[in-house]
Structure formats: C-alpha cells, structure tokens
Amino acid sequence: MLLLFITFCSAISLTELGYWNGVKRIRREFPYLENNVYLDYTASGLHQISQLKDFYYDVSKKLYGNAHSISPSSINTDTVVKQMRKRILKYFNANPKEYDVIFTSGATEALKIVGENFPFTPASVFLYLLQNHNSVLGIREYASHANATWGYFTEEDPEQQWKSVLDKLNKLQTTNVTHHLIAFPGEDNFNGAKFPLDWICKINSLSNNKHKFHVLLDAAALVPSAKLDLTKYHPDFVSISFYKMFGFPTGVGCLIIKKEVAKELKISYFGGGTVVMAAADRDWKVFPDYLPPKYEAGTLNFLGILGLKHAFNHFPNIDIIHKHTYALTRVLFTELNKLTYSNGTKAVEIYGNHNHSTYENQGPIVTFNILNSKYKYNGVFPKHVPLLTVNEFLAKKNIHVRVGCTCNPGSCLNSLNVTSLAAAAVTNPNTPVDTTLEGKQYGAIRVSIGYPTTIGDIRKFIRAIKEFIKMVE
Fold it and tell me: Where is the Aminotransferase class V domain (predicted)?
C-alpha cells in the first residue's frame, strides 16, 4: 500500500486520501506522456486518444457544413450544436428554462461578450475580486468607456465592501434602474485558492428596485476538477474554456447566461448569423428571437463543437477527478513544504490555502518559488532563484510547468507582497517572468494537476526539485 506522511503526523494511504487507482488504466489513453511529466493542466487539459478516434470516425462517416443554411450538411451541424447546448446545461445542472449557452472561442471571448454588451451607464459600478484573470480585468475598459465606476474588492469581509458600495449608490438620485456587475473566479488560476460560491446569492441579494447587481463567475479554472451545480448557485454569467477540461477541441468555450438577464443586455455588434436580415443602404436589421445567435457572430467552430460530444463521452466522473487531484495536491504540497537546504533553512515558499486546505478552499495547484540559499534580508542577494533558471532545468527533464504571473497580476503580486506600482517600474515586456524587484520576484512556478496525473509524476517532480536545490546551494 502506498503511504505518505502528512503534516499532522499520521500515515494514511493514497486511496484513503482520494487517489484514483483507475488512473493507471486511463493513462493508456495518453501515450504521448511517455517520458514526459506534464503538470500544466490549468493552462490546458490533455486529450484522450479514444476521444480523437471517435471524433475522426464521426467526421469521416458524416458530412457537416456551415449551419447557416437548410442543406443536409447544415442540418447535421445544427442538430449537433443544439444537442451540445442541452448537454452543457445538463452537465452543469442548469435549468434550460433559466439558462442558455452562447458558444465562444473560450472563456476570454465569453467575458468579452459580457463586457461589450453589459448595460453600463455613468451610474453603474463594476467590481471584481483582486485575484482575477486579466480577461476579467479587461472588462473595466468597457466600464470606463461608459463612464461607469470600477474597482476591486478583497476576500477579507467582502460583504461589508459590497454593502458599502450599495449604501453610496442608494444616496444617489436615480430615476431608472441601474445595473451593476460583480465578478470573481471560482478558483484562482495563480495559486489554486477557491472562493465561496455562496457569494453569488449574497451579491444577488443586494439588488433593490433601483439597483440590480449581477454576478459574473469565471469558472475556467474551476470546472476541470470540480463540480459546478447551477441549481444550487445562480450566477448571471458563467465563462468556460472547454480545452481546459478536455484538451481537445481547442478554440471552443461558452458563456452560460441567464435568459432574463440577457434581455437587459445591449447588442453592440451584429454580423453573419446574428441577424435574420439587415439593410445595406439604411440602418435596419432584424435580430432572431432565439438568444444564442444574437451573440455568436460569424460561423461557429462547428467541428470543435462536434468534438465536445466525444470529449464529454470520455471525461471521467467529476467527483472522482476532484478527489484524485486533491489527494495529489496534498502530497505535492507536503513534500515541497518539507524541503530544506543543508543548513536547515527552508528551500521553497508556497502560496495559496495549503496550510488549511480542504476540498472547498484549495484547487489542484501548487505555486511556489525556490528560495535563494544565500538570501539575506539586506537585499544583497535576490530572495528567489530566477524563474527561467528553474524552468530551463525542468524542461531538460521533460517536466512541463508554468512560470510567471499566469495572467493573474492581482493574485501574483499580492502573494509575492509586491505592489503594482513597484512591478510597473521594473517590468520588461520582453522578459516579464524574470523580473526581480528589491530581491522579490515578479512571478512563481505553478504546478497544476489533472485527472491523468499519477503519483509517479509527483515523485519525479519532487526528485527533480531536490536535485535542483542541491545544485544551487
């Protein structure tokens, strides 16, 4: 029986912790992992070979064409697209009377659709959690163009921060209903910290007859390893990238949107199938009554959407994935946290909720820096070993991780205790992941675990880090 030593000093089996013994069987679906240790699942999941075989068999036996017609091939595509909208809603337990699915190229386009079409006015407020992806931060550009107010909130007593905003809004003299947007991720893509989904109902409860608060949940990092139940939680918008779940198809994501909220959105652009008919010589167009096509400009990635059918068919049970990835995350954190230099000083600095982690508050990510063994607080030496040095060492061993701020500057700089002003002063656009400031590094090493990850992968990674620490001591 495989045993590991947990920080609370009790030896337990990996299986008891949640390790999925079936991973040995499913690893046969990933022959390209031979001689590779892939630990970058938050960036992209990996495809199964059987999944691709089923997809290629499908497209070799049946003709699929552009859906914007009534030819047989178009009808084939239209049928699959409708089936996949239903399947996505069913997978996330979303009531089809309440929600609809808009296909996008990924979570970023889903977030962009919200920003472009949200009814911001000068009286509106856009708030986002400090630890958000760049693609969420970008929405503030649309808020700014509408002269709306934007800002961030922190995870320390967020309800008080929201109520403070509402109190200020209630003092304003308004005649029309004003719409406000609050955004947060289900999981921090930098360090894996999870945020309470019950924030959703608490934000919705702020609404009154003058001010409507809408919730945008960025679920891109959450759903590859955790269940999202949209009958339990009711965000107005949910952004998803399917390649993060399945590896293939790439270039397909979606925006799950409340139908009632969609009625409040403006339409900032039309093109292709987003209109039934438009005039070229005057300002006239007719939009379809059906919601999704209004925001799906151009031809959908219909073969990619077909690929989702086979991806869902081969995706393991999400509860098994959740337990399995959490078990390996605990092992990885525990082993990294024990590493020291020969003089007894700690060798790594780890970020996230790992010291008090549960299934609910920590995802399958361990983000860390390797401390410089010569580090002195007088600033003579940098605090951390340069990221590119670590990455180069791991790459030579075919170990795949991600270094930098992983497109999440709020979480990254907050974890590293670096201010955004200080980072801006030294950021080099050509080498952003290797910037240091007063001995502090602008970035970290992110290790993210997926359902194909085995305990063998974790052991190889730990051995490599131990070897590196000895080398730089």
Answer: 37-460
Strands 237-241 and 253-258: antiparallel
Active site residues: 407
Any idea what DSSP says for residue 433?
G
The tokens 């759903």 sit on which residue?
A: 223
Buried b (16+ CB within 10 A) or exposed e, 91-112: bbebeeeebbbbbbbbbbbbbb
Beta bridge partners of 447: 366
Residue 287 burial (10 A CB sphere; 0-12, 13-18, 19+)? middle
Listed in sequence order, the DSSP H helices in 13-99 are 14-17, 23-26, 49-61, 72-91
| Rounded Cα–Cα distance for residues 433 and 190 (Å) | 13
Q: Please give the Cα distance from 161 to 202 (Å, whole number).
A: 12
Q: Is 436 exposed, middle or buried (0-12, 13-18, 19+ CB in 10 A)?
A: middle
3-state secondary structure of 259: helix
Give all domains of the chain, ordered by start, each with its CATH number.
Answer: 12-16+316-470 (3.90.1150.10), 52-312 (3.40.640.10)
- Judge whether 351 and 443 are in contact, CB under 8 Å: no
Contact between 127 and 213 under an 8 Å Cβ cutoff? The reply is no
CB 246 within 8 A of CB 254: no
Taken in order 208, 209, 211, 215, the sign of the CA dihedral is positive
The contacts of residue 183 (CB under 8 Å, 6+ apart) are 126, 127, 128, 129, 132, 136, 139, 215, 216, 217, 218
pLDDT digits (tens, 9 = 90+) for 234-247: 999 999 999 999 99
Return left, alpha or beta for 247; rule: phi > 0 is left, psi -120 to 50 is alpha, else beta. Answer: left
Rounded to 5 degrees, what are φ and ψ at 362? -140, 125
Q: Would you call 53 exposed, middle or buried from its count of C-beta atoms within 10 A (0-12, 13-18, 19+)?
A: exposed
Q: Find how far residue 188's CA is from the centre of its chain.
A: 7
The conformation of residue 356, written as its DSSP 8-state character, comes to G
Block residue for tokens 């809408």: 214
Residue 254 in contact with residue 240, Cβ under 8 Å? yes
* Closest CA relative to residue 341, chosen from 466, 445, 440: 466
For the whole model, what pTM was predicted? Answer: 0.94
Kindly report the backbone phi and psi dihedral angles of residue 452, in degrees, each rounded to the nearest multiple of 5, phi listed first.
Answer: -80, -5
Going by C-alpha positions, the residue among 281, 159, 184 that lies closest to residue 235 is 184
Residue 65 C-beta-side C-alpha neighbours within 13 Å: 9
